[in-house]
Amino acid sequence: MQNNSLLNEIRTKQPLVHHITNWVTIFNCAQAVKSLGASPVMAHAPEEAAEITSISSALVLNIGTLTEDIIGSMLIAAKAAAEKKIPVVLDVCGAGASAMRNQSCIRLISSGFINVIKGNASEVSCIAGLDVTTKGVDSTDVSFDLADVALNLSKKLSCTVVITGKRDYIAGDGKLFTVDNGSELMGRVVGTGCMAASMIGCFAAVLPGDLPGASAAALSAWGIAGEKASAKSSGAGSFLVHIFDELSSITEEDMTKSQKITSLTI
User: For residues 199 and 219, is the Cβ–Cβ distance under 8 A?
Assistant: First the structure.
Protein backbone atom coordinates (compact mmCIF):
# COMPACT_ATOMS: atom_id res chain seq x y z
CA MET A 1 0.00 0.00 0.00
CA GLN A 2 1.39 3.41 -0.95
CA ASN A 3 -0.28 6.61 0.24
CA ASN A 4 2.94 8.57 0.47
CA SER A 5 1.63 11.59 -1.47
CA LEU A 6 -0.61 12.31 1.52
CA LEU A 7 2.36 13.82 3.32
CA ASN A 8 2.78 16.53 0.69
CA GLU A 9 -0.97 17.07 0.60
CA ILE A 10 -1.02 17.71 4.35
CA ARG A 11 1.79 20.23 4.04
CA THR A 12 0.20 21.94 1.06
CA LYS A 13 -3.33 22.16 2.44
CA GLN A 14 -2.37 22.57 6.12
CA PRO A 15 -5.76 21.20 7.24
CA LEU A 16 -7.23 22.43 10.51
CA VAL A 17 -7.51 19.51 12.95
CA HIS A 18 -9.80 20.25 15.91
CA HIS A 19 -9.02 18.43 19.16
CA ILE A 20 -11.08 17.99 22.29
CA THR A 21 -8.43 16.04 24.03
CA ASN A 22 -6.40 14.97 27.02
CA TRP A 23 -5.12 17.83 29.19
CA VAL A 24 -2.02 15.78 30.07
CA THR A 25 -0.83 15.59 26.46
CA ILE A 26 -2.58 18.50 24.76
CA PHE A 27 0.59 20.49 24.02
CA ASN A 28 2.39 17.47 22.57
CA CYS A 29 -0.59 16.67 20.34
CA ALA A 30 -0.70 20.25 19.08
CA GLN A 31 3.05 20.29 18.44
CA ALA A 32 2.97 16.94 16.64
CA VAL A 33 0.24 18.19 14.30
CA LYS A 34 2.10 21.45 13.69
CA SER A 35 5.40 19.66 13.14
CA LEU A 36 3.86 17.40 10.52
CA GLY A 37 2.51 20.41 8.63
CA ALA A 38 -1.16 20.56 9.59
CA SER A 39 -2.80 23.16 11.84
CA PRO A 40 -4.03 22.27 15.35
CA VAL A 41 -6.85 23.89 17.30
CA MET A 42 -7.85 22.85 20.82
CA ALA A 43 -11.31 24.26 21.55
CA HIS A 44 -13.08 22.56 24.45
CA ALA A 45 -15.84 25.03 25.37
CA PRO A 46 -19.33 23.83 24.39
CA GLU A 47 -20.19 27.38 23.32
CA GLU A 48 -17.73 27.19 20.40
CA ALA A 49 -17.31 23.45 19.81
CA ALA A 50 -19.67 23.25 16.83
CA GLU A 51 -18.43 26.49 15.25
CA ILE A 52 -14.76 25.47 15.40
CA THR A 53 -15.49 21.97 14.16
CA SER A 54 -17.45 23.29 11.19
CA ILE A 55 -14.36 25.07 9.84
CA SER A 56 -12.05 22.11 10.48
CA SER A 57 -11.06 19.20 8.25
CA ALA A 58 -10.98 16.57 11.02
CA LEU A 59 -12.04 16.18 14.65
CA VAL A 60 -10.00 14.23 17.22
CA LEU A 61 -11.63 13.30 20.54
CA ASN A 62 -9.70 11.81 23.47
CA ILE A 63 -11.29 10.67 26.74
CA GLY A 64 -8.06 10.76 28.76
CA THR A 65 -9.13 13.52 31.18
CA LEU A 66 -12.90 13.36 31.25
CA THR A 67 -15.51 15.60 32.79
CA GLU A 68 -19.22 15.67 32.07
CA ASP A 69 -18.82 19.06 30.40
CA ILE A 70 -16.09 17.72 28.13
CA ILE A 71 -18.30 14.84 27.02
CA GLY A 72 -21.01 17.37 26.23
CA SER A 73 -18.59 19.37 24.09
CA MET A 74 -17.48 16.20 22.32
CA LEU A 75 -21.04 15.29 21.41
CA ILE A 76 -21.75 18.81 20.14
CA ALA A 77 -18.57 18.82 18.04
CA ALA A 78 -19.13 15.30 16.71
CA LYS A 79 -22.65 16.18 15.58
CA ALA A 80 -21.34 19.28 13.78
CA ALA A 81 -18.67 17.15 12.11
CA ALA A 82 -21.20 14.57 10.96
CA GLU A 83 -23.38 17.26 9.43
CA LYS A 84 -20.43 18.44 7.31
CA LYS A 85 -19.01 14.94 6.66
CA ILE A 86 -15.84 15.78 8.61
CA PRO A 87 -14.06 12.62 9.85
CA VAL A 88 -14.19 12.04 13.62
CA VAL A 89 -11.45 10.09 15.42
CA LEU A 90 -12.16 8.83 18.95
CA ASP A 91 -9.19 7.81 21.11
CA VAL A 92 -10.66 5.57 23.82
CA CYS A 93 -7.80 6.45 26.18
CA GLY A 94 -8.07 4.45 29.41
CA ALA A 95 -11.26 2.62 28.42
CA GLY A 96 -11.89 -0.13 30.95
CA ALA A 97 -10.25 1.76 33.82
CA SER A 98 -13.50 3.21 35.22
CA ALA A 99 -17.25 3.03 34.77
CA MET A 100 -17.31 6.70 33.72
CA ARG A 101 -14.88 6.09 30.87
CA ASN A 102 -16.79 3.05 29.71
CA GLN A 103 -20.14 4.83 29.82
CA SER A 104 -18.70 7.87 28.04
CA CYS A 105 -17.36 5.67 25.25
CA ILE A 106 -20.79 4.08 24.87
CA ARG A 107 -22.44 7.52 24.67
CA LEU A 108 -19.99 8.77 22.06
CA ILE A 109 -20.03 5.64 19.92
CA SER A 110 -23.81 5.27 20.19
CA SER A 111 -24.21 8.77 18.76
CA GLY A 112 -23.33 7.34 15.36
CA PHE A 113 -20.93 10.22 14.71
CA ILE A 114 -17.62 8.38 15.24
CA ASN A 115 -15.70 7.30 12.12
CA VAL A 116 -12.46 5.96 13.63
CA ILE A 117 -12.04 4.28 17.03
CA LYS A 118 -8.42 4.12 18.18
CA GLY A 119 -6.89 2.56 21.26
CA ASN A 120 -4.38 0.04 22.52
CA ALA A 121 -5.14 -3.68 22.74
CA SER A 122 -6.79 -3.64 26.16
CA GLU A 123 -8.77 -0.45 25.49
CA VAL A 124 -10.24 -1.65 22.20
CA SER A 125 -10.86 -5.13 23.60
CA CYS A 126 -12.87 -3.48 26.38
CA ILE A 127 -14.92 -1.54 23.82
CA ALA A 128 -15.51 -4.85 22.04
CA GLY A 129 -16.99 -6.27 25.25
CA LEU A 130 -14.15 -8.70 25.92
CA ASP A 131 -12.93 -9.55 29.42
CA VAL A 132 -9.74 -7.54 29.99
CA THR A 133 -7.97 -5.77 32.82
CA THR A 134 -6.88 -2.21 32.05
CA LYS A 135 -4.02 -0.49 33.89
CA GLY A 136 -4.81 3.20 33.50
CA VAL A 137 -3.88 4.28 29.98
CA ASP A 138 -1.20 1.60 29.56
CA SER A 139 -1.99 -1.54 27.62
CA THR A 140 -2.09 -4.89 29.38
CA ASP A 141 -1.46 -8.22 27.72
CA VAL A 142 -4.47 -9.72 25.99
CA SER A 143 -4.80 -13.21 24.57
CA PHE A 144 -7.23 -12.35 21.78
CA ASP A 145 -6.49 -12.36 18.06
CA LEU A 146 -6.26 -8.60 17.56
CA ALA A 147 -6.93 -8.80 13.84
CA ASP A 148 -10.23 -10.52 14.63
CA VAL A 149 -11.03 -8.01 17.38
CA ALA A 150 -10.49 -5.10 14.99
CA LEU A 151 -12.42 -6.72 12.14
CA ASN A 152 -15.39 -7.81 14.23
CA LEU A 153 -15.72 -4.47 16.02
CA SER A 154 -15.40 -2.59 12.73
CA LYS A 155 -18.22 -4.62 11.23
CA LYS A 156 -20.38 -4.27 14.34
CA LEU A 157 -20.01 -0.48 14.57
CA SER A 158 -19.59 0.29 10.84
CA CYS A 159 -16.46 2.34 11.43
CA THR A 160 -12.70 2.04 11.17
CA VAL A 161 -11.02 0.40 14.19
CA VAL A 162 -7.36 0.99 15.01
CA ILE A 163 -5.47 -1.07 17.60
CA THR A 164 -2.02 0.32 18.39
CA GLY A 165 0.93 -1.56 19.81
CA LYS A 166 4.18 -3.16 18.70
CA ARG A 167 2.14 -4.15 15.65
CA ASP A 168 -0.79 -1.93 14.74
CA TYR A 169 -4.04 -3.34 13.33
CA ILE A 170 -6.44 -1.29 11.20
CA ALA A 171 -9.80 -2.62 10.01
CA GLY A 172 -12.64 -0.98 8.13
CA ASP A 173 -14.57 -0.93 4.86
CA GLY A 174 -13.70 -4.58 4.25
CA LYS A 175 -9.96 -3.88 4.59
CA LEU A 176 -7.40 -5.09 7.11
CA PHE A 177 -3.90 -3.64 7.48
CA THR A 178 -1.01 -4.17 9.86
CA VAL A 179 1.70 -1.58 10.49
CA ASP A 180 5.07 -2.60 11.90
CA ASN A 181 6.84 0.74 12.10
CA GLY A 182 7.83 2.19 15.45
CA SER A 183 10.32 2.09 18.30
CA GLU A 184 10.20 0.55 21.78
CA LEU A 185 11.20 3.96 23.15
CA MET A 186 7.78 5.29 22.10
CA GLY A 187 6.24 3.21 24.88
CA ARG A 188 8.30 5.06 27.50
CA VAL A 189 6.99 8.51 26.57
CA VAL A 190 3.67 9.78 27.92
CA GLY A 191 1.30 10.74 25.13
CA THR A 192 2.63 8.82 22.14
CA GLY A 193 -0.75 7.12 21.81
CA CYS A 194 -2.55 10.47 21.97
CA MET A 195 -0.20 11.88 19.34
CA ALA A 196 -0.84 8.84 17.14
CA ALA A 197 -4.54 9.72 17.18
CA SER A 198 -3.62 13.27 16.16
CA MET A 199 -1.63 11.87 13.23
CA ILE A 200 -4.67 9.86 12.15
CA GLY A 201 -6.68 13.08 12.25
CA CYS A 202 -4.15 14.81 9.97
CA PHE A 203 -4.17 12.03 7.38
CA ALA A 204 -7.95 11.57 7.59
CA ALA A 205 -8.32 15.28 6.85
CA VAL A 206 -6.81 14.79 3.39
CA LEU A 207 -8.17 11.28 2.70
CA PRO A 208 -11.66 11.24 4.25
CA GLY A 209 -12.92 8.73 1.70
CA ASP A 210 -10.50 6.00 2.81
CA LEU A 211 -10.17 6.12 6.58
CA PRO A 212 -8.53 2.68 6.94
CA GLY A 213 -5.89 3.71 4.39
CA ALA A 214 -5.45 7.12 6.00
CA SER A 215 -5.06 5.51 9.43
CA ALA A 216 -2.47 3.02 8.21
CA ALA A 217 -0.46 5.75 6.46
CA ALA A 218 -0.64 7.93 9.58
CA LEU A 219 0.62 5.20 11.90
CA SER A 220 3.40 4.29 9.50
CA ALA A 221 4.57 7.92 9.26
CA TRP A 222 4.37 8.24 13.05
CA GLY A 223 6.31 5.00 13.50
CA ILE A 224 9.00 6.00 10.99
CA ALA A 225 9.45 9.31 12.79
CA GLY A 226 9.75 7.32 16.02
CA GLU A 227 12.38 5.02 14.54
CA LYS A 228 14.47 7.94 13.33
CA ALA A 229 14.06 9.83 16.61
CA SER A 230 15.03 6.77 18.63
CA ALA A 231 18.33 6.45 16.76
CA LYS A 232 19.27 9.96 17.91
CA SER A 233 17.97 9.78 21.50
CA SER A 234 19.58 8.85 24.80
CA GLY A 235 16.26 8.46 26.61
CA ALA A 236 12.62 9.46 26.83
CA GLY A 237 13.24 13.20 27.22
CA SER A 238 15.48 13.66 24.21
CA PHE A 239 13.25 11.32 22.21
CA LEU A 240 10.31 13.70 22.55
CA VAL A 241 12.36 16.57 21.14
CA HIS A 242 13.72 14.45 18.30
CA ILE A 243 10.35 13.07 17.24
CA PHE A 244 9.03 16.59 16.66
CA ASP A 245 12.11 17.27 14.54
CA GLU A 246 11.56 14.06 12.58
CA LEU A 247 7.90 14.86 11.94
CA SER A 248 9.03 18.20 10.53
CA SER A 249 11.56 16.61 8.20
CA ILE A 250 10.02 13.26 7.18
CA THR A 251 9.68 13.00 3.40
CA GLU A 252 7.78 10.93 0.89
CA GLU A 253 11.09 9.23 0.13
CA ASP A 254 11.36 8.22 3.80
CA MET A 255 7.85 6.81 3.61
CA THR A 256 8.56 4.83 0.45
CA LYS A 257 11.82 3.46 1.84
CA SER A 258 10.73 2.61 5.38
CA GLN A 259 6.98 2.00 5.28
CA LYS A 260 5.96 -1.36 6.81
CA ILE A 261 2.27 -1.63 5.94
CA THR A 262 0.79 -5.01 5.05
CA SER A 263 -2.65 -5.49 3.52
CA LEU A 264 -4.14 -8.76 4.73
CA THR A 265 -6.70 -10.91 2.97
CA ILE A 266 -9.98 -11.11 4.85
Answer: yes
